[in-house]
Design a protein that fits this description.
The chain is elongated and about 85 Å long. With 186 residues, the chain is of the alpha/beta class. It has 2 domains: 128 residues, 3-Layer(aba) Sandwich (Rossmann fold); 31 residues, no CATH class. It has a 5-stranded parallel β-sheet. Helix 4 links the parallel strand 4 and strand 5. The protein is built from 8 helices and 5 strands. Helix 3 packs parallel to helix 4.
Length: 186
């Protein structure tokens, strides 16, 4: 895993969130469970956390071998004759720190199991818009100030130098060309 600072693992009822997404998103006809997993992976990367995504039965044919960005989600399938709700209940029960879990599902049975272990529980209807807002922010703003790479804008350097009592002195040969030319000619 690329990061070791996971704060609170999330557990998703995959098809529950998928159906909410299909009913509420404009591009609903185009979304697939695999695409939803990619969206969750990017969301987890953004919030610096990890998720377990639980599916009923087994993964369908043609499922991608890996989902980018890697290391933020783990996909679990319930297998034949077992449903994702039971799998999620087992994960909640087996967790040694259930208060740190966040369960994403609108299913009453899962939300009841989460409440019983004092897990944070968010409905799929509430989680989806928040996830979409976070995903819209990715890549829209620089993580560090532009001035770090471009320097202080014109007109702002003087007040800073005055504040710290530094005299503004420009070297006679700012690029060091005279010294370099002198070495070459000798």
């Amino acid at each position: 895993m690329p990061y070791a600072w996971f704060i609170m693992p999330y557990i998703f009822d995959a098809y529950n969130l998928y159906h909410v997404a299909r009913n509420n998103m404009e591009e609903s006809a185009e979304i697939t469970p695999a695409m939803l997993c990619v969206m969750i992976a990017w969301d987890m990367r953004y919030i610096k956390d990890k998720a377990i995504i639980c599916f009923d039965s087994v993964l369908p044919r043609g499922w991608p071998k890996k989902i980018e960005p890697e290391g933020f989600i783990e996909i679990r399938c319930s297998g034949h004759g077992y449903d994702a709700d039971s799998l999620i209940e087992d994960l909640i029960e087996a967790n040694s720190a259930p208060k740190r879990l966040t369960i994403i599902s609108s299913d009453r049975r899962i939300r009841k199991a989460a409440r019983a272990r004092k897990c944070k529980s968010i409905t799929s209807h509430d989680y989806l818009p928040e996830m979409l807002k976070r995903l819209a922010k990715i890549g829209t703003k620089p993580r560090e100030p532009r001035e770090k790479y471009t320097g202080v804008p014109d007109g702002q350097l003087g007040p800073w130098l005055d504040m710290f009592g530094i005299k503004k002195q420009l070297p006679e040969d700012p690029d060091g060309l005279d010294e370099l030319m002198g070495r070459i000619s000798n």
